[in-house]
Amino acid sequence: MEPNLNKKPLNEWSEKERIRTVKKIFSTITPRYDLLNHVLSGCQDIRWRNFTTRRLPADARHVLDVATGTGDLAITMAHKRSELKVTGVDFVKAMIDIAAAKTARAGLASRVEYIAGDAMRLPFADDTFDAATVAFGFRNIPDRIGALREMARVVRPGGKIMVLEMTLPRETMMGRFFKWYLKNIIPIVGKLISGNKGAYNYLSDSIEDFLKPDELGIQFEKAGLKDIKAFSMTFGITYLHEGIVV
Fold it and tell me: Is residue 2 helix, strand or coil?
């Protein structure tokens, strides 16, 4: 059954409305979430996560994955980097349950743990981690500067904050095609696979509404990060943003 979604334009939602709706959506689509990610991205999401893993600091030993969802990035990082311990945090219990089961099947449960938690109030002491990542969940956080500051709090000085996120490319042929794809294909395929067209209407709208890469770079600066970089992937539909904790 589809959740009762807010019908207002996304940019008119209050912070409470957005948080409440995101929880409903991700609790509903969890069983088919991984399959849909692969189908709707043409399996490019796998390549994007692999690139993110390669950009982790060479000396990282403990990484925090915020909005970990079903654990795809956490599992990728632990699989590719055998020296890593990864802690995943998410506020949707159904997602964490699936993440834990996937991690156990991958034989990584000794190095990957999952904790229920809020990105705005991370349940960790200062300077706990060597890096913090977010993959495809950052656009669902209303207070993005606050979330970056909170991640920076729990990452040691010199550590790295990394945000992997989809965005609407600028007005190019690819940008126009991707906008059409978001509006016309993603909700239909989402409904066919998950039975929930409304959730994928929201996900399409959230990508279209998200910050441009230079705008997100400014938010990294406002959060106090330095040495900020952005890497474009797949014709600019996805970017990896990085900043170093001072």
Answer: coil
The bridge status of strand 112-116 relative to strand 129-135 is: unpaired
What 3-state class would DSSP assign to 240? strand
pLDDT in tens, 200-234: 788 888 888 899 999 999 999 999 999 999 999 99
Domain boundaries, the chain: 42-168+211-244
Burial class (CB in 10 A: 0-12, 13-18, 19+), 172: exposed
Per 3-state DSSP, what percentage of the chain is helix, strand, and coil (rounded to 5)?
50, 20, 30
The pLDDT tens digits for 127-157 are 999 999 999 999 999 999 999 999 999 999 9
> In the CATH scheme, what architecture does the domain 42-168+211-244 have?
3-Layer(aba) Sandwich (3.40)
